[in-house]
Amino acid sequence: MGQTLTEKILAQHAGRERVAPGDNIWVDVDILMTHDVCGPPTIDIFKREFGENAKVWDQNKLVILPDHYIFTEDPHARRNIELLRAFAAQHDLQHYYDVGTSRYKGVCHVALAEEGFNRPGNVLFGTDSHTCTSGAFGLFSTGVGNTDAALIMGTGKIWVKVPETMRFVFEGELPPYLMAKDLILAVIGEIGTDGGTYRTLEFDGGAVYDLSMQERMTLTNMAIEAGGKNGIIAPDQVTFDFVRARTDAPFQAVYGDADARFHSEYVFDVSQMVPVVAKPHSPDNKAPVTEVVGTRLDKCYIGSCTGGKLEDFEAAARILKGLEVKVATYVVPASTEVQRRMKEVTIDGQTLWDIFESAGCMMGHASCGACLGGPIDTFGRAVGTEVVISTTNRNYPGRMGSKMSAVYLASPLTVAASALNGVITDPREVLV
Amino acid sequence: MIRGKAYVVGDAIDTDQIIPAAHLVYSLTIPEERKMYGRYALSGVPADQQGLPKGGQPFTAEDSFESEYKVIIGGSNFGCGSSREHAPFAIAEAGCEAVVAESYARIFYRNSVDGGFVVPFETRVPLTERIRTGDEVEIDTVRSTLHNHTTGEDFLLNPLGDVADILKAGNVFEYARQKGLIST
Ligand code: SF4
């Protein structure tokens, strides 16, 4: 009996020939990532357990990316950044990306990819549930809490229960009005927010390998919204080209065995799929856009690790070019690199940034922004009973700032089309 | 043995409902600030769902930092959403010792165990409609049973399995020390 991609990576990192779902193993960690919300409490626990002056297990494997509460006057949030800064200095960390410097990156999951920390075959942990995003590069990645992260910080090891793998195969040609967001919302709608709990979501099939790395990251990003432990896509030339453009670090690609056993398998023909939304208040509350067309909106939001990458803005800009939005629309690049590229990449001679500004959008700085609500002065935060359509990944009550607000999740194409009309709109109506 | 009043909530109580993101800025170690986690535990649950079946009963009273409830009874997928360890921490900080739910999101479950915050029990039958907020309940942690003193009913919980060793050790660090993975 063969092993799946995830099982093979875990076995290698546990120093074993093979592992089976359900095994409890200790693995060696290649990269640990933390950010400004969970970094400081992780450091506190690390010091409590290993000593005030203890050294981290490997300076080169710890990546710290402040991104959540960045552009706020909240004094507690600002203190968190100072704590990270002091820790990075004390440990001489090469991979600390400080706010207010040219090194600042933005949302951690996008920055991990951009800086070449996502390498096929690796094991990567992060103190953020969307750490599963990195799995788009053919590696095992998952989110953990502060205690687990502190244990890794001190030892480079952590226990893992080997997950069963669910396989999602996408075949066919993706129509121009669909994006990876539609595919993953369809999956979550089908299996539910706990349909993948404790398991791996592996994405496969021709339509997946036709996607760019950015779009693949949208798929793996939301594995956690189905409860998954990790999302993963086997690497191919597209992966290698992306990684090699960003790092010289060695890596060894791993592939699942042809006779691997899966928990279950789902097959989708993407040419038959339609634009979808997740209605309030759960990511699995799926409906075709046609069902909610005409819903009045107070706010549109394009941003986050799942919906604020360069290609997300390219898609939205295609719809907004030369036109004006009818409702408050917030544009928040995930990273400083995305922000810079938005000012370089053009459609018919006009930069993406310019297209959004001319359309009347409000432009934010690279960060998590209002994706998780955040301090009261956060850019784009939902207030009161606002109805919002957003490219982010969660719409639980209060997620974007107000318990009374109603958030619809959708692709950048659908959000842009809706911004144009001030009501939820099917992108097929406006795409030419 | 864990004994005290039960607090009942519904399905898919996510981490933003357990501790809204705006409160994550408080220090987990400075006493004056850490008690804010007890103050705001479960404050993100919509008012009509707070303390079922009636609703409108906050987990922690308006001017208090500790909850009068010792055991949370939840439905499926308790703790879904973000990886924030502040979630089980907040519940523990409020003085609550155990959660009994039909199922858990894995990161919440893991954080509860590895940090030694609350004991996450799984139920065999849905209990959210069999127990009412304010009922006096008692959990036998060794036998994995729950007795409702208010109604006299008994329920079986799932055995804790592999994680019992970590819970017994106190947290994952003590467990790792016992296994020889940490030398200090
Ligand atoms: S953008 Fe949103 S989902 Fe992504 S890391 Fe930030 S808060 Fe989390």
Any chance you could write out the topology, listing elements then pairs?
The complex is a heterodimer of chains A (432) and B (184).
Chain A: H1 5-13, E1 24-28, E2 31-34, H2 39-50, E3 62-64, H3 75-90, H4 108-114, E4 123-126, E5 140-143, H5 146-155, E6 157-161, E7 165-171, H6 180-191, E8 200-204, H7 206-209, H8 213-221, E9 230-232, H9 237-244, E10 264-269, E11 276-278, E12 286-288, H10 289-292, E13 299-303, H11 304-307, H12 310-320, E14 328-332, H13 336-342, E15 346-347, E16 350-351, H14 352-358, E17 362-363, E18 387-390, E19 406-409, H15 412-421, H16 427-430
Parallel strand pairs in A: 2-3, 2-4, 4-5, 7-8, 7-10, 8-9, 13-14, 13-18, 14-17, 18-19
Antiparallel strand pairs in A: 1-6, 11-12, 15-16
Helix pairs in contact in A: 2-5, 6-8, 12-15
Chain B: E1 2-8, H1 15-18, H2 31-40, E2 69-73, H3 86-93, E3 98-101, H4 106-114, E4 119-122, E5 136-140, E6 145-148, E7 154-156, H5 164-169, H6 172-178
Bound molecules: iron/sulfur cluster.
Key terms for this structure?
heterodimer, A: 432 residues, alpha/beta, Aconitase, domain 3, 2 domains, five-stranded parallel beta sheet, B: alpha/beta, Aconitase, domain 4, 6 helices, 24% helix, 17% strand, binds iron/sulfur cluster
Structure description:
The complex is a heterodimer of chains A (432) and B (184). Chain A is of the alpha/beta class. Chain A is built from 16 helices and 19 strands. Chain A has helices at residues 5-13, 39-50, 75-90, 108-114, 146-155, 180-191, 206-209, 213-221, 237-244, 289-292, 304-307, 310-320, 336-342, 352-358, 412-421, 427-430; strands at residues 24-28, 31-34, 62-64, 123-126, 140-143, 157-161, 165-171, 200-204, 230-232, 264-269, 276-278, 286-288, 299-303, 328-332, 346-347, 350-351, 362-363, 387-390, 406-409. In chain A, helix 6 runs parallel beside helix 8. With 184 residues, chain B is α/β, with parallel strands linked by helices. Chain B has a single domain, classed as Aconitase, domain 4. Chain B has a seven-stranded mixed sheet with strand order 4-3-2-1-5-6-7. In chain B, a hairpin with a 5-residue loop joins strand 6 and strand 7. In chain B, helix 2 (31-40) crosses helix 3 (86-93). Chain B is globular and about 50 Å long. The two termini of chain B are 31 Å apart. The mean pLDDT of chain B is 95. Classes of the chains: A alpha/beta (432), B alpha/beta (184). At the A-B interface, helix 2, helix 3, helix 5 and strand 6 of A face helix 4 and helix 6 of B. Residues 68, 107-109, 128, 130, 304-305, 368, 371-372, 392-393 of chain A line the site of iron/sulfur cluster.
